[in-house]
Specification:
Length: 450
């Protein structure tokens, strides 16, 4: 082949030199070659180099060796055999020219990140095309460094970077101690905790039973030794409070909180004084300590601080007052009964009390009774009140008398005008006998009987 190329080469060059883009002396062309490629393409044929397109070479048949070059690309050699009257098109594809770049750091071992990809650890040799490049050097304990470089030719080059130490020390404590510590959501143990950190910001979270979780951002600077203490906020506690009997007013540290049964919430950890107050009962008192985040319950069994009075007042319809306060009337046991129902006056404070019974037709019309009441004791008292329940009118004198009718028959009645008086009166002497209802006033007869 070499002999053939030596034979044809002078003729080719003569043809090219005699024509635009030709390569040799003027001779009838045997073949035509059209060459295209990247910008800046140069075509070498023997000793001739063509740099200006279009590359259309008229060449005698034969074998040729072409050299293609372009800025930023590796040279390429291509052997071509041309036949007579052949029209050949060659599209040249060149590989980018690569340059060796050594990236090194002090100390070694830093990761080189280009774009979003880790390409290796220093010292690192990269085969790169011409152009501009950038990356990030990362290494635990050292500051992250950005680097930029440019490859302008195929000569190997070296990039050396000195890394700066990036270590900070921190001691993290908490109140209370033994809180679980999370750094950037990673559990690292219980407080107090000491460790080395890269310069930067960290998410700190502390958790402890009975306390609200605490989250903070901790910023550490290079070379810093930082002691940091965090105080956790206790979770509020609560108390469920009941009493026997229910309905007691509850005071927590002298502040009313409700009526039993009740629940007192949102109490910070502390010692609290609880009082249960209900009329007629001794004040219940308790002291309780609320721990962080925990609830408790207490029950008061209240002791009566009062006594009671049971009154059996005869007859029905008598007005009753206690210490000047009206308390109602005596009531008949049944419609046809002369007996009355007992009257219970409960929750009476210990001491002397005045029971007053009265009726417009009583004699006297009002009377007081002093009763001594003791704590948790019952005072029973029977009270008979003399009340006029009848009016009579004598025939001979027309005199009307008001009194009590005790008994009666067809011939006589037993009648008294005052307590302790009881006389028999012949019905023949009376114009009429009028029985009075308990609430009916005297002196206005509505009906009478002989």
């Amino acid at each position: 082949m070499k002999r053939m190329m030596n034979f044809f080469l002078p003729a080719v060059l003569a043809a090219v030199l005699s024509l635009p883009g030709g390569c040799g002396k003027k001779e009838p062309p045997g073949a035509v070659v059209n060459i295209t490629g990247p910008e800046g393409l140069s075509v070498g044929c023997g000793k001739q180099v063509f740099t200006k397109p279009p590359f259309e070479l008229k060449m005698p048949p034969g074998s040729y060796l072409f050299k293609f070059t372009a800025p930023g690309y590796a040279p390429k050699w291509q052997s071509v055999v041309l036949k007579d009257q052949e029209h050949r098109r060659i599209a040249v594809e060149l590989e980018p020219a690569l340059t060796s770049v050594l990236v090194a750091t002090r100390p070694a071992g830093a990761e080189l990140v280009m774009g979003s990809r880790v390409v290796g650890a220093t010292p690192l040799v990269l085969e790169l095309p011409l152009g501009s490049f950038s990356g990030q050097l990362r290494m635990p304990g050292y500051s992250e460094r950005a680097i930029d470089w440019r490859v302008d030719d195929e000569r190997p080059r070296q990039i050396m970077v000195n890394l700066d130490a990036n270590i900070a020390k921190a001691t993290i404590s908490s109140i209370p101690e033994q809180a679980q510590l999370f750094i950037d959501d990673r559990p690292v143990g219980a407080t107090p905790y000491s460790g080395e950190f890269n310069e930067g910001k960290y998410r700190i979270r502390l958790e402890a039973p009975g306390f609200l979780p605490l989250e903070q951002v901790l910023t550490l600077n290079r070379g810093e030794e930082l002691p940091k203490t965090y105080k956790l906020t206790p979770k509020p506690g609560g108390i469920d409070i009941t009493s026997e009997p229910a309905g007691a007013e509850i005071f927590v540290n002298d502040v009313k909180q409700g009526v039993t049964p009740c629940t007192v919430m949102n109490l910070t950890p502390a010692v609290y004084r609880i009082r249960a107050v209900k009329q007629g009962y001794d004040v219940g008192k308790k002291t309780i300590q609320i721990a962080a985040g925990f609830s408790d319950s207490i029950r008061f069994k209240l002791v009566k601080s009062t006594g009671a009075i049971i009154l059996n007042v005869q007859p029905a319809g008598i007005h009753i007052s206690l210490d000047g306060k009206p308390y109602g009337k005596s009531v008949a046991e049944s419609e046809n009964s002369t007996g009355t129902k007992p009257i219970l006056i409960d929750s009476v404070a210990p001491g002397r009390h005045v029971v007053t019974v009265s009726h417009p037709r009583a004699m006297p019309s009002s009377r007081d009774y002093v009763l001594e009441v003791q704590k948790e004791k019952v005072v029973n008292r029977k009270i008979d009140v003399w009340v006029a329940n009848c009016e009579i009118k004598f025939k001979d004198t027309g005199r009307v008398e008001l009194g009590a009718l005790f008994e009666e028959s067809e011939k006589a009645i037993f009648f008294g005008t005052e307590p302790g008086v009881r006389v028999e009166i012949d019905r023949a002497k009376l114009e009429w006998v009028r029985k009075l209802k308990i609430d009916e006033p005297a002196g206005k007869p509505e009906s009478s009987e002989k």
